[in-house]
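hey can u check if this looks right to u? its 471 residues, i copy pasted from the old doc so theres a chance i mangled smth
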Amino acid sequence: MTEAEARREFAAEVVRRLRRAGHEALWAGGCVRDIILGGEPADYDVATDARPEAVMEMLPFPSIPVGIAFGVVRVRHPRIRGIEVEIATFRSDEAYVDGRRPKGVIFSTPELDAARRDFTINGLFMDPETGRVIDHVGGLADLRGGLLRAIGDPAERFREDKLRLLRAVRFAARFDLHVEPATLAAIRSMASEVLTVSPERIAQELRKMLVHPSRDRAMDLALDVGLIGVIFPPLAEMRGLFQGKPVQPEGDLWDHAMLVLRLLGPRPSFPLAFAAFVHDVGKPSTRSRHHGRTSFHSHDLAGAKIAERFCRLLRLSNAERERITWLVAYHQYLGEAKKLRESKLKRILAEPGIDELLALHRADALASTGITEQVDYCVYYLEHQPSGPINPAPLLTGHDLARLGLEPGPGFKSILDTVREAQLEGRVQNKREATEWVEHFRATGRWPAVWHADALDDAVSPPVDGAGRQS
C-alpha cells in the first residue's frame, strides 16, 4: 500500500468508526475538491456531529486537541508516521473580532457548516463509502464552470479572515479558475487590508504559491488585484518598464520576471522561486539613460538589499533570507563565466547554493536571450573539473603563518586570500610552494608574479606594506 493509499484508508476508517458509534461523519473541504478534480489529496478532513471530547474517547487512535474550543481534534495513524486526519464538529461561527478567528462557535449542521467556509469549491462534503458528493453551496457547479466564488457575501467572507484574499489568488491560479465578478471586486476593494494579516501567514501563502507550477499565474493575478502593490510595492513598479529582451521584445520587466518563474521547472525550492520572483527588483530604482541607452548599473546589489527587506518583512528564517539575498546579488555573476579568472569561478562554484544559482541563471538566460552557453559551461566545469578540484582544502592556515613568524592581524586574511587564489588557479601546487612564497614575501616585501617555488626570484609585482597591502 502506498502512503497516499494508506492516508486515504485511514481517513475512511475514521469515518467508519464514527458512524458505527452512531454519528454522522463525512469527508470535508479540500480533500473532496481534490478528488473531484482527479487529484490526490495531501491530507483529509472529516466533519462530524460528534463533539470533540466524544471523538477522542471513541477513537482508538492517538489524538491531539488542536482546537477543542472550536471543535477540532487531530488523530494520528497508529503505525505510519506523518499520517493524520483532522476531525471537526459541524459548526457555525460567531462574529470574527480579529480578522482571523471567530470569538466562538456554535455546533450545528452540515448545511450551516458549509455556509461558514470560504469558497464554494471548499464547501463540499463526500461520503467515502459511496463516493456521493453532498453540496449545499453550489461548489460542484462552480468547479465544472471553472469559477472561484466566495460563499455568501464575498466582502463578509474576506472580513472574517483577510488571508482569504491571498487564498483566493492561490486557488484560482492552482486550479485554473476564473474569479467570479463579485468575489473579484471584493478582493480588489479590500486588497490593502491584507496587511492586517501576520507576516508569517502571508509568507506561508506565498510559499505555497511560489513552489507550485502555477506560480506565475498566481503572481500575475496578485498584481492584477492589487495585492502585490500592497505587500511588495517595489515589485509593482516593474510593470511598464520595458527592456526589449530578445525573447520578449514587447514585454516589460514584470513579464520577464514571470517568464523566469515559469522556466524554473515544476518544483523549485521556496528560496529559489522567491529569488527568481524578485531578482530584477533593483532595476526600477537604478534605471538611467546615457547616450540614448538605458542601463541598470548595480541593480543586482540594489535588488539584494530590497530582497533582504522583503525577507525581514515576512520574517523568514535566517537561512532562507541569506540564500535569497545571495541569489539575487549574484544572479548576473556567471553571465560571462568563461571570462572569469579561475579562482573566482571556483570560489562561486564551491558555494553551497550553486545548484540554485545555476538554475536561476539558466531560467534568466532562457527568458532573456534564449542562450545558455555560460550556464552550460559552469555545469561542464562542475562535472569534469578540468583545472583540478573545485574546492580543495586550503594549503595554509593562520596557524601556519604564525609558525612562520608573522604577527597575527588584519594582514593574515589578505595573505591567506592571495595564497588561496593562487591555489585555485593552479599557480601554487602544494604546501611547500605556498610556504616558500610566504617566506619570500616576508623577506622581500614583494609578491611573486610567478608562483612556482623554482621561479620565486624572478619577476615581481609592486612592493607591499607589512599588512599585505600593495603600496
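Residues 451-471 have pLDDT under 50 and may be disordered.
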